[in-house]
Batch of 2 targets.
Target 1
Amino acid sequence: MLLLAGMLMIGACASQQPTNLKPPPLLIAGPEVHVPDVDVLAVSPAMDEFLRRYILKYRDLHTRLTLLMDAVSGNGVLGFEYDDSLTLTSVEAFDARAGNCIGFANMLIALARRAGLKANYQEVIRRPEWSSREDVVLLVKHINVVLEHSGYTYVMDVSGIHTNPNVRRRVIGDDYAKSLYLNNIAVDALIKNDLPTAYAYMVKAIKEEPLLTDSWVNMGVLLSRNDQLDDAALVLLKALEIDNYEYAALSNLYEVYISQEDLESAAQLADKVEAYRQKNPYYLLHLSEEALEQARFEDSIKLLRRAIRTNKSDHLLHFALAKAQYLSGETEAAQSSLSRARELAPESMLAHYDRPLGELVAEQESETNQ
């Protein structure tokens, strides 16, 4: 599941109850977007029929649990394909047989509870992971499903992501999970620069779970994009009221202060923000591009290697390394980095990466200079 991170966006634990939780209005012309109240855990007739045919004819709950887990696995009767771009309700995920981690969780929990089983959402508290999309940075969060029976606990995770068994986990409530669902849809709208839709879903997410910092941070990014800098600062401060360790809120608030030319307030945040950004691969990518522009090839390569250690799976980082190596004269290493970028790239990018590296670098340099 992706939660907008930026500028940078995220979510964390609540520490205290903030005051005045109503977000500022979006100052933009046009009709107000209405968000329907959707039941993300609804069960459709098709889902009932699936349960009747494969699960409910067995009275023993452990048998039902085992059969349901088998059915929703990749090779099971139902099957499910992980797609991190699809944030879906239970019914939508069932019909598509696909979705991201929250779509899968919605579907499995709805089916399990209908079958008389105990099932809940679980958030996996991992080290921050980032990905990039368009002109924003996304902070990746992850949830899975916990099923319980007769003192035993089973975890189902559709993503295939390997997590250390010692990593922190916590069961989250239905309202919190629904807020994550609404937040994801808001992020998709914001990436498309559909501010009214993004705002409407963020407001809905905040009403659903006011203490989820993700929504407040994302709202701050949206308001900043709409040049409502005072409102953006107010909203980001609310995120910090909820969790004063919310570093995405700090980072975005710092940028707002800079835009407002409030250098004194920005200076108070500078050290914390810089420490946070040094762990963000896309901030390191930005620094590497600055180094490359100044022909500091060794510095650029070092920064990109640090970025890749933080996120090994983004083809954009490997291509940036290939470019820096190529411009520094390390042609053999550059070709190796390009091959890695090609391995990680989506199918739509393969033809692009099949072109000669020199041509790709020249094309990107031309686009940058325009």
Target 2
Amino acid sequence: MISAVVDPSVLVSAFIGRPDAGPGRVVSAWREGRFTLISSPLMLEELADVLGRPKFERWAGDGRGAAFIAGLATLSDHYSDPEDAPSGVRDPEDEYLVALARLAGADALVSLDLDLLEAPLGDLTICRPFEFLTRLDAESSR
């Protein structure tokens, strides 16, 4: 089965956006068991921090954000936070996602972040949600 680290920005977009948009479809594919989601404490903390911001209150309030994060934590393959391992991405705050994907042997890192998408990381597939969904579709048709 394909495994992937999904950037918190994709998860936030899925949470607040339309379910038929790319990020929402990635989360739906995970819920349907089409791929294994890889998570770590730092990734879940980042997601909680973002969803806890006042501008997301209308979506994440009344425990909805916490329930979303709890579901991700419970149903994902959980790894310890990786050691610092510089990867060469432009934004140092994204380093942990690359290190997590490498640590877990993920098949992909799914992101909307150009700092990741444009990073010269030949050993790791970094793709947009629609590219990842295309790959899932190709795998399921085999």
